[in-house]
Amino acid sequence: MPDLPLLPVRELRAFDPADNGRPFASLLVVKKLQARTAANGNTFLSAEFGDRGGSFGCTIFGDSPAFETLKSAGEGAVIRFEGKVDFYQTRFSPKPGRLTVVSEEELAADPGVIEHLVETAPEDAAALWTEFSAFIESIGHAELRQTVQSVFEEIGEAFRWSPAAVAMHHAYRHGLLEHTVRMARACRALLPLYPEVDADLALAGILLHDTGKTIEYEGTLATKRSRRGILQGHVVLGYQLARKHGIKARLDPDRLERLEHIILSHQGEPEWGAAVYAATPEAVFVSMIDNLDAKMGMVQRALRQAPPEGEFSERLPGLNTTLLTKPVQPADR
Asked: What CATH number corresponds to the domain at position 199?
């Protein structure tokens, strides 16, 4: 087992039930870890492991030698995972064998390890930031532009690195920047169809809509919600940022209220986290674009991570379905 080559998650997910029992080794981040109690009263760990190519779930029971190792390591730890291929309800869910924690000293000695472990946005982060900055500069209304600029003077560095979610969409480094730039691109393309929408207000709302996530999320290798994220949530945290800097920029009360409303309503439905339903043209516009890019972000990530020989992805909770990953065949000429 110690001599096994380290396989990335993309190769692990290419296994099928015919490979059950096959031993493997991999270097992974503990992305999620939750202690649960079975019907018989025994404790087990529900874990998610991953690298830059994807992740998989795994159950570790109390009698496993890996139980105490993983419980002590916690979320965000880097683990050498040795186990055997197995599936649960058609999903790759291996049987763990020996788990070894990789120390911070070992990680520091090989910077390439971190690059292997951390999933990043497929687009170049520096180019995305340049484009993002140009979107800010394009806002014509002076006080509205100053409001947005002031927010990013406060949170800019965190915004550039933050994921857009823990799991659902754009859940990787630079994901928040990528998601916001793609929304701004969609905004520019769609505005000519909807002249009722104030262009500056809609663009400002898009650039600010998820800024609270820079406070809601924390963690370097594994993303989790912060204390303020749990107690207030990114919608309220983003509203607070917009209000603080809107007042500082002396944005007129009507525009400030409309900008705040975009942030408070962009999640669409109260059960999805919205404080209120979208009730202005700009808020409806931004909420729909947000929903579109979030769902297409899930699609794009599933396509990137799909094994070449597979036909469908695993079930995507955000879409409530599996996704057909085989491309459309070219038409015969």
From this structure: 1.10.3210
